Amino acid sequence: MPRLVLIAALLTLLAACGGPAALQPPAEPIANTALDLVLDAPSSAGFEVETNAAEDLRLRWPGDDESPAASLAFAVGEDEISLNLVEYVKGQEADLDSRPGGDFLGQLELGSHIGPAFITRGRFTGDDGNELEETKIFASHPDPETDRVLTITYVYPPSPGSTQARREQALSALGLVQIPGAEPTEESGG
């Protein structure tokens, strides 16, 4: 009889936890060899993998109460003699200001697990005539053998009060980038 009570209690607990789907193992990291990047499981930061082919690595924010769905893209530049992230920020300012309705809203310098980085934000009018906001992160590629820029570009429709949430989402994406040879961190879901 005690065995039946234990089985009933386990079945009740399983049903309360959402059934078998709640017991799935954590998602695996994803790799993009063309970009020489490995990301800790994007689902651990709330993202879905939209595309991972050749030099096209995109994550999708599925949307929530604070911020509608949007895409985030990773890009890696060519190897440089001396990487200067400030020049990338200046280039981003000029690029945003040259777009229709463009307005560069500022930048912040960051310290990250892969080294110094900058985050920028601006607004512009998209091809369809709707206002868009763009948050961009410039960082050194995590491979210490190269001097390449890692760029994370997050474009989304602006919504009232979503600036902080979008910044946090972009920073979460940066936090997914693994350093070669390092083990995934507990915080990033690995």
Features:
190 residues, alpha+beta, 7-stranded antiparallel beta sheet, two-stranded antiparallel sheet, globular, disordered C terminus
Biggest pleated sheet: 7 strands, antiparallel
- Order of strands, main sheet, comes to 3-4-5-9-8-7-6
Percentage of residues in helical conformation: 10-25%
The pLDDT mean sits at 83
Coarse structural class? alpha+beta
**Helix and strand element order:** HEEEEEHEEEEH
| 3D shape | globular
Strand portion, in percent? 25-35%
| Gyration radius, rounded | 20 Å
How widely separated are the two ends?
A: 41 Å
H/I helix tally: 3
User: Regions with pLDDT < 50 over 5+ consecutive residues?
Assistant: 1-25, 186-190
The total strand number stands at 9
What is this entry, summarized?
The chain is α+β, with helices and mostly antiparallel strands and 190 residues long.
Structural write-up:
There is one protein chain. Helix content is 23%, strand content 34%. With 190 residues, it is an alpha+beta fold. The chain is globular. The chain is built from three helices and nine strands; from the N terminus they run αβββββαββββα. It has helices at 2-16, 85-98, 163-176; strands spanning 30-32, 37-39, 48-53, 56-61, 70-76, 103-112, 115-125, 131-140, 149-156.
Which helices and strands occur, and which strands form pairs?
Blueprint: H1 2-16, E1 30-32, E2 37-39, E3 48-53, E4 56-61, E5 70-76, H2 85-98, E6 103-112, E7 115-125, E8 131-140, E9 149-156, H3 163-176
